[in-house]
Amino acid sequence: MLRLLRVKNFALMEDVTLELEDGLTVITGETGAGKSMIVSAIASLCGARIDDDSIRTGKKGAEITGVFDIKPSIKKKLEDSGIGTDSDIIIRRSIEKGKRQNSYVNDRMVSLNFLQDIAQEMVDLIGQHENQSLFDRRNHLALLDAYAGLDGLRKEYHDDYEDYRGLHNKLNMLLEQVEARDERIDYLKFQIDEIEKANLRPNEEEELDIEKNLLLTSEKRSLLVSTLADDLYEQDDSVVEKLSRVKKSLEELAELDQQLKQYSEVVNEILSTVDDVYRVMSSYAEKIEFSQEKLDTVIGRLETINRMKKKYGKSVDEIHGYLKRMKDELSMIETRDEEIEKTRKEIKDVEKKVLVLAGDLSAQRHKSAGDLRKKIMGLLKHLGMEKADFEIRFHKTDVGPFGKDEVEFYISTNPGEELKPLRKVASGGEISRITLCLKTLLSDVDKIPTVIFDEVDIGIGGRIAEAVGDMLAKVSKTHQIICITHLPQIPAFAENHLLVKKEIKGDATYSGVTKLDGETRELEIARMLGGKDITTKTVEHAHEILKKRKRA
Hints:
alpha/beta; Rossmann fold; six-stranded antiparallel β-sheet; six-stranded mixed β-sheet
C-alpha cells in the first residue's frame, strides 16, 4: 500500500506531504482546490507522463515521491534488476522544464516501462486513467479463476502444460537433429577418434616440460657436475685434501687441549658430507644423457597436447570433459529414433491429462461466470445502473498456459446499446462504478493493494451515493482505498478524511492538505451539504450523517 506521498512544486502544490493509512481515505475540497493534483501525482508514480505545464509557476522543476509497502513479487523483480530492497519501495519522479523526465526506484534510475510494470501490481487508478487493471482483458481470466476458486486446478493444469510444452520442444529438437544426423555423426566420430588417439594423461604436460628442460640442459649440467667433482675430490689441492689437512691439524691440537676435540669432530662430519656430495654427483653424472630422438619425441608430444588444447579445451581435464559430452551426444544421436518414439508416446500421455484438465477448467469457468454475472448485475442496479447489462464472453483457443479459454468482460450501460468490451466504456463515472462492483466481488482475490477512485460519484446522489460509500467501505477491508469525492454521504464511510484547500498568499496561490477529525470533519461535510454558507442546520445534518454511519 501507499504509505507516504510527497509532492514538490507540482501544479499549485509547493511542498505537500501526505501520510496515508489503511482502509478508506476520502479526499474532499472545493472545486478547483487541487484534489485532482493528488491523483495526477500518484498517476505519475505509476508511470504517467508529467507535462511541463504541471511544474509550479516560477519553479524550474517538480518532484513527486511515494513510499510503498513491498510485495514479494515486486521484491523479486527489483532483485532481478539489481535494485536493493528493504521493507519499503521508494518511487520518485522528477522533471525539469525542457528536459527529460527521470524515474527512480530506491534511488536507482529506471525506465518508464519498468516503472509501469511494477506499478500495475501496486496501484489501480480508477477513472480516466490508462493503467486500470480491469481494462486489460488479460487480467479477466485470472480474476474469474480466482473468483471461482480455481487456483489449485489452474496450478495443476499449468504444471502439466509445462511438461507438455517441454516434451514438444524436445521432440522438435530431436527432429531437427535427425535432418543433420549423418553429418553430425561423422563430425563427432572424428573428434572422439582424434582425442582418444592423443591418449592424454593428467599432469602429462607438466612432466614433459620437466623432461624437455632436462634434455635441453644436459650439456650444461654435465659440465657443472664435472667441475664440482674436480673441485671436491679429483684435482690437486681439492676440497677433500684441504679438509683432510685441517682435520689432522685439529686432531693434534685436540691432543694438546681437550676443549678443541669437538671442533675436530665437526670437521670430520663436514668431510663425510663432502664425500656424500661427491658420490651423489658422480652417480648423477652417469645418468646425464642427451638424445636428439628423445627430445624430438617430447617436443612432438607437447605439440600434440597444445593442438588438442586449442581445439577442445584449455586443459587436459577440459578436453576429457569435452570428450565425454561428445560421446554422450553421439550415443543420443545413435539412439535418436528410439528417443523420438518414446517422446511422442510421452506427449500423447501428457496431452490427455492436459485436455481433461483444460476441459475441467473451462466447465467451472462457465459455471462461475454465470454466477459472477448475476452478482455484478445486482450490484449495478444497487448503484443506480438499472438498465446496465454485463456479460463474460468466452473465446475458445488452442490449449495454452492457462487452458483453452480467453475471457473478456463486456458491458452495456444504456438500453438498446450493444454490449462492448469494458475497456471501451466512455464515461468516467460509469467506469468507476462498474469497477467498484467488480472490486467488491473480487476484493478477496484481487491482489492489487491500493485502489484510487477518481470519479466514482459523478452523476449520482442520495441513496446511490450511500450505496457507493458502503461498497467502498467493504472493499477497504482488504484494500487501501483512496477516493476523491464531491458527495457528503461518502466521507461518512471513511476511516480517514483529507481536505484539499486553496489559499492565496500575496501574488501566489497554494494548495495544501489537512487531515480532518471530529468537528473539522463535521464542518467539511456541512460545507459539502450546503455550500460555502454553513448553517446550524447543515452542521446538524452533517452530525447526523456521521452518527448514523457510526451506528451502522
